[in-house]
C-alpha cells in the first residue's frame, strides 16, 4: 500500500503530502482519545481535485477521512488507522452574497466566522453559531449537522442549507438543490449528507440560506430552586410576545468551577441550585421588560434574577454560560456526554439519573449544563482527586452504560449535537434500533460500496 | 393473483374490502388523468394492522399504494394498475398536546384542520396550511413534504416533523426521532421518508412540532408594473422590522378570470400587470403601517396599494389570491405546472419563458401566480376556445418540455411542492441527474427490495 501512497503524492504534487508534522496535526480533532496516524494528507484546491483524489482512492481501496476545522468532539475526523486525510482547508471561496434570495454559495472550507463577516455588511447572517466558530468550517458544520446556543431560535444547521455540491466515493460530483427553497422531486439526498459525518460523500460547496441579523437582544440571568422551576419558567417565557433566542441552564457546581477558574464574581449574593440564561429578541426597549421581570419575582417563579442594562452586562452574563466548558477542563478532568431528551421528559429523566448515580456512584461531582430549551443536556462527571485518571476513564465506560440506559428509557438520544464518530459508536444501539442500523449499512453500501469514506466511523 | 386478494380479504375481515364503489373512490386523487383500478382497499385501524398487511403483500409481491386524504396534484396516490390501496383514513388518533415541549403525536390519518383545532385551545398550531387542509391528512402531508401559503414564514412540512413511526415494506416498524429536537446519531432516516411519496415506507404516526399561533396579521395588496417591481418590493419588505408571513403574486389574466367567475370587484380602479399580496406579522397596530405604505407610493415602488383595516377586508384580499386556482378551472381548462427557481433568477427565468412561449406558441393565455417569496411559480396555460381538449393536452406535453428546459437552464425545479407521482415522472431528469436517479434507485432497493410500495411512482 506504501507504493500507492507514493503514487498519490506524485500524481497530486503540491496537494498531497506525507510530511510527518502535518500528518500529526491534520490527523486529529478536538478529542484526544485516539492517537493520529494518517498515511497522507491531501489539501485540494478545487472540486475537480477532490474528485480525482477520491476516484484514485476508490479504485485502489484507500481509506479517506474527510476533514474540516477538526473542532469535533466525537472523533469523527480522527485518522488513526493509516488513512488519507482529505482536508477542505484550502477551499475557502465565498461567492458574493445574493441579497434578493438571501443566499450565499461558499466552498466547504470557508470558516464559520468568515461567513458571518462576509454576510454582515448586508444585514444578513448564517445563523449557525457556537464556541468554535473561529476555526470550524462550513462543510464540517453541515456534515455534523452542528447545533449550538441559538438552536432554539434558528434550528440546527440542517435548516440553513439550501444546496450541496458533494463528491461521491467514486469521484462523481452531485449538485443537489442549488439556491432553491422548494424542490419536491423525490427523496431529498441533501438530507442524507447532512449529519452523516463524512461517511457517504465529501461536501465541497454549499449554498447557504441566510437570515436577517437579529434586532435588539435582551439577556436575563435567573436563579431557581430546581429543574421543575427551570421548566415552569420556560413555559412562562413562551407566553411573552417576544422571540426566545436562547434558553440555557447550568447548575451551582458549574458556577463554582467557573468562578474558581476565572476572575468572575457570582451573579447573585446567595448560591442557587440552578441558573437560567434567557435571551429575548424583539422587545421595544429593555425598560419595557422590567415589569415582566418584577412579576416573575412576585409570582415566585424565580428566587433571583437580573436583566442586562447594556451590552457589556449582557456579555458578562453570557460568559457565565459559555465559559463553563473551558473552566471544567481547566479545574479538573471532566468526562463529557451530550444527551437529548424530549422536553416533556427532562424532569423525570433528571430524577432517575440522579437516583441511579447517587446509588451506584455516591459522592461524584456532576456538572450539568446545556441547551435545555432544546432538551439538550451536557452531562459532565468530574474526576475525584482520590481516583487515578486511568481508573476514572475505565469507570466512565461503565457509568456511560448506566446513563445511556436511562436516556433510552426516556426515549432520548445519546448524542444531541456532537455526533457519533469513534467515541459513541459502541453505544449507537441505545438510540438506533437493529432495523435502523441495517438500513444505515444498506445506504452506506449504495453511496460508498467499497467503504473507503471515513471507515469505522458512526457504524461498522 | 386473484386468489391472493381473496385471501387478504379473508385474513383481514372488516379491514380489507373489494367493493367496487369504494375502490373507485379510494383509487384516485385530485388529478383526473389516470382512471382508478385498484384490486382491493385496506382501512387498517392500528400500526399492527398496517404491519401485518404489508408483510403479507411483501411475501406475495402484491403492489401497495399508500393513501392519505388524496388531495395530491401529481397522481402519487392513484391506484391505476390493480394495486392494494392502503388508506390511513381510520387512523386519526390525536394524543394530548404536550404544552411543555410544544409537540403532539398523532396517527397518520389525522386531518390537517383537525390537528389545527386540536392545538388551538393551547395557543399553538401546526403551521402546515394550504387550501385542502379540510381533507388532507398528516401522513400524506409528510410523505409529500407539503408546502402552501405560509412556507415563507414557517418553511415546508419537513421543518415541523420531530418523530415518525414508519412501517417498511416487509412489515418492520421503525420509531424515528420521537419528540426530540436534537438527535445527531448518524444519517437521519426520517428525512428520507419526508417527501418520498410513499415509495420507501408507510408513515403511521408522527410527532409534530408546534408553533405558537401568530399574533396580529396585516394584509396588503399592491399593484406593480412588472416582475422587477415585484422583486424590488420584496427586498423593501424584508427591511421592515416585521415578519413576512406571506408574499404572493398573481397577474392580470388571473384576476380577470377570478372577477368573471366570482362576484368580486377588482381591487383597484385601473388594471395592473402584476399584483402582490403581502401579509406581515408583528406590527403594533395597523395604523402604525400607514406611513410605510405611503412611503412606498412616494418612492414609486408601487403604482397602487391597500392595507386591510379589519379582518373581513383581509379575508377579501386573501380571496383574490386563494380563489384563483378554482376560478381558472371554472372558467376554462388550465394545464398546470408548479415550478421553483432561485429567487435571484426569477426575473431572467420569466423573461426567457415569455420569449420562448411568445415565439413558439403565440396568442396563448398564460395565468401566472404563486408563492413568489419562495421562488415558486404556478404556471397555468389556458386552453384556447378554438383548440380541442385532446389537441390542447397533446400539445401541453410539448410545451412542458420547453418550459422545463428553461427551468433547467435557470437551475430550477420542475416540481416545487406538488411532487412527482405519475404526472411528472417522465420529466424528473430535468431536475435530477442520472447519478442522483441511480442513488434513488439504490435507496429504494434498500428499503423495499421487492418494489411493492407505490410502484411506478416518482421513478421506475
TrEMBL record, chains A, B:
Q: Which UniProt keywords apply?
A: FAD, Flavoprotein, Oxidoreductase
PROSITE patterns in the record, alphabetically?
A: FAD_PCMH (PS51387)
FAD-binding PCMH-type domain span: 34-213
For activity, the cofactor(s) needed are:
FAD
What SUPFAM superfamilies does its record include? FAD-binding/transporter-associated domain-like, FAD-linked oxidases, C-terminal domain
Where do the coiled-coil regions begin and end? none
Going by the entry's taxonomy, the superkingdom of the source organism is recorded as Bacteria
* Pfam families referenced in this protein's UniProt entry, alphabetically: FAD-oxidase_C (PF02913), FAD_binding_4 (PF01565)
Q: Which family does it belong to?
A: Belongs to the FAD-binding oxidoreductase/transferase type 4 family.
Output this protein's name: FAD-binding oxidoreductase
Provide the species name.
Pendulispora rubella
